[in-house]
Amino acid sequence: MERDVRRIIEDELRRPTLFKNRESLAPEYVPDALPYRDEELRSLASYFRHLVTDPGSIAQRVLVTGGLGTGKTTLVRMFATGFTHVARERGVSLDYIHVNCYRSRTLFSIVHDAASQLGLTTPSRGFSPREIVDMILSFLEENDRYAIMVLDDFHYFASVVGRESVYFIARMHEAGDGSRRLNLVFISANTSTTGFFDPVTESYLDRHVVRLQPYSSSQLLGILRYRARLAFQDDAYDEEALEFIAEYEGVDKNGEGNARHALTTLLVAGDIAEREGARRLTVEHVRKAISRLSREIERVSDAIRYSPLHELLLLLSIVRLLRRRNVKGVEMGEVEEEYRLLCNTYGETPRRHTQLYEYVRNLRRLGIVDTTVKNVENRGRTTIISIPYGPLEELEKYLDALIWRKKDVEY
Ligand SMILES: Nc1ncnc2c1ncn2[C@@H]1O[C@H](COP(=O)(O)OP(=O)(O)O)[C@@H](O)[C@H]1O
Ligand SMILES: [Mg+2]
């Protein structure tokens, strides 16, 4: 081997790394403790105590609300896992079902997902949602089991389906034999009153609600300290860097109080520090991370994490075209062409026009793209697609990584 080549490789290998466990800053990571949420955990336990003291007495329904990154998903996961465990110790067979409404977008896929989490095999067509729910209820009844079913990011489902589907979910436990065995937790990001349930359900949920407040700077500092200890080597970061993020994000300092954003900022700052070959993560790295991260892209990344592969490919085509042309909006026809080229590079068979339109509609509902219709001379009407925020460079990187990850899972 060339001497220089070896020297560079060895240098790189010797270079100290700041991270000890980078994964522990990822949004998917489930921490083993959830500081500052004891009261909320207690409320949940009290709403569901009947499952242990008097199982089958009622079918509980609870609403958990709060802004993005206030810990809704983590809180409910932790509660349901822990509660299931405790109930089983006391002889109650309790199952925990977690349905993500960004992933399961229709009534059918929600109940189908719930059934398969219970281990029921239901064919993916040929049954109505009602029939599948009945199967779930009689399964619970026949086996003397109970379930807590969580509908995460339910506001998204409510915004894309009709009222009847929302009513159906809210009341699906009411018919049939096992009607008091299925308990529901709705998680919604809307902080004001939900407004999408029927009046009776609405007023019930109003009395059975857990509201998560945005985090203050000092709470965020506590969270950041805890996660930084897991993620970085000892002495690899300045305490001031954590303080800087906590103050930037804390609701008392006009931030959003979003823990996810705070943790992602720390992760990106760590990556920047590593790439620069720094020995410690400092405030300057945090400043760079903040300027690189756009809030909207953070929000978008949450919404598209579960999008189907081809919806992502279509979005990536939009992003690439917008960047290359450096324009505000691009025509649907051009996007489709770009998409077909992209499919080629990724080794995918392109989807048809009607399906692509459906993806665009969905991306618009998610607030990721905007569309307008324009009359074009001699060509009739055409749809113009735009992305009214930025920078798109980060979004493109994120999409590309997400697409490869999805392809890995598929094959
Ligand atoms: N009290 C807390 N302590 C530690 N980590 C937290 C806390 N609240 C939120 N987090 C972290 O912040 C991130 C966002 O939480 P999440 O539950 O996904 O929020 P939401 O569902 O409300 O958007 C996760 O990585 C989670 O681990
Ligand atoms: Mg969530």
UniProtKB/TrEMBL annotation:
<dbReference type="GO" id="GO:0016887">
    <property type="term" value="F:ATP hydrolysis activity"/>
</dbReference>
<dbReference type="InterPro" id="IPR055237">
    <property type="entry name" value="Cdc6_lid"/>
</dbReference>
<dbReference type="InterPro" id="IPR050311">
    <property type="entry name" value="ORC1/CDC6"/>
</dbReference>
<keyword id="KW-0235">DNA replication</keyword>
<dbReference type="InterPro" id="IPR027417">
    <property type="entry name" value="P-loop_NTPase"/>
</dbReference>
<dbReference type="InterPro" id="IPR014277">
    <property type="entry name" value="Orc1/Cdc6_arc"/>
</dbReference>
<feature type="binding site">
    <location>
        <begin position="70"/>
        <end position="74"/>
    </location>
    <ligand>
        <name>ATP</name>
    </ligand>
</feature>
<feature type="domain" description="Cdc6 C-terminal">
    <location>
        <begin position="315"/>
        <end position="399"/>
    </location>
</feature>
<comment type="similarity">
    <text>Belongs to the CDC6/cdc18 family.</text>
</comment>
<keyword id="KW-0547">Nucleotide-binding</keyword>
<dbReference type="Pfam" id="PF22703">
    <property type="entry name" value="Cdc6_lid"/>
</dbReference>
<dbReference type="InterPro" id="IPR036388">
    <property type="entry name" value="WH-like_DNA-bd_sf"/>
</dbReference>
<dbReference type="InterPro" id="IPR049945">
    <property type="entry name" value="AAA_22"/>
</dbReference>
<feature type="binding site">
    <location>
        <position position="227"/>
    </location>
    <ligand>
        <name>ATP</name>
    </ligand>
</feature>
<dbReference type="InterPro" id="IPR036390">
    <property type="entry name" value="WH_DNA-bd_sf"/>
</dbReference>
<dbReference type="Pfam" id="PF09079">
    <property type="entry name" value="WHD_Cdc6"/>
</dbReference>
<dbReference type="Pfam" id="PF13401">
    <property type="entry name" value="AAA_22"/>
</dbReference>
<protein>
    <recommendedName>
        <fullName>ORC1-type DNA replication protein</fullName>
    </recommendedName>
</protein>
<comment type="function">
    <text>Involved in regulation of DNA replication.</text>
</comment>
<keyword id="KW-0067">ATP-binding</keyword>
<dbReference type="GO" id="GO:0005524">
    <property type="term" value="F:ATP binding"/>
</dbReference>
<dbReference type="InterPro" id="IPR015163">
    <property type="entry name" value="Cdc6_C"/>
</dbReference>
<dbReference type="GO" id="GO:0006260">
    <property type="term" value="P:DNA replication"/>
</dbReference>
<feature type="binding site">
    <location>
        <position position="215"/>
    </location>
    <ligand>
        <name>ATP</name>
    </ligand>
</feature>
